[in-house]
Request: fold
Amino acid sequence: MSTHRFLLAALTALMLAACGEKTEDSTVTTDSTPTYQAPVPAESRLIAGHYRYMADAAVFTGCHTGQRWPVAPTAAAADLERAYLDARSVPGESLVVSVYGHIEVMAGMEAGTEMPHLVVDRVEQVPADIDCPLPNAELHGRKWQAESLAGDSISGDNPPWLSFSEDGTVQGFAGCNRFTGSYSYNGTDMDIGPLAMTRMACRDGAETEKNVVDALNRVSEADIEGDLLRLRHGGDTLMELRGIALP
Reply:
């Protein structure tokens, strides 16, 4: 009988583990996190990162790696969105969260394209009380002011500039209009865009703006040397920008 009870207890423990039952050591959820903890698929893993929801789109940037994924529309993703909206201080703010999820290739925003998405299986903590550093700290916290474009010096009192945020957003001034968008950078490879711009008509700066936008759309590599940022494509330098520390 004692052996039977031992086997039954062991089987029960395994079943609870398979269903994602929380233990005393599990992360404690906040008031903004759904209290019901649904079972998760076998491929699901606990992932922490910076979550941002803006303009009907959610983006997740992983801690340490800086990998960015759009968030696939699932029931758990809707839970995450609601918890984020309850916890954020201002619209568009980036919050550190932890979720159970997995990566799955799905259709992209543009027709005929595919890209990896984060599929949220269960929300764990919003906001998450963990340290979540992102790479490329030297890129952040500066206003990168353009000094040259395709080898030609840029003059004037109001040159184009860029500012990169830790949550994967970039904003700046192209010479006439301001813009905002997304970027990714792993220390070597860089991708910028898509960009959304204001629509002001300017008599001065229109040609510079066209060349700046064309350059940003072509960027595939970048390197930082001190306070100098070089944006490149195929080994050619498209832009050089000088970093100015933000207050």
User: Anything to note?
Assistant: The chain is about 15% helix and 40% strand. The chain has two domains: 29-125, 137-245.
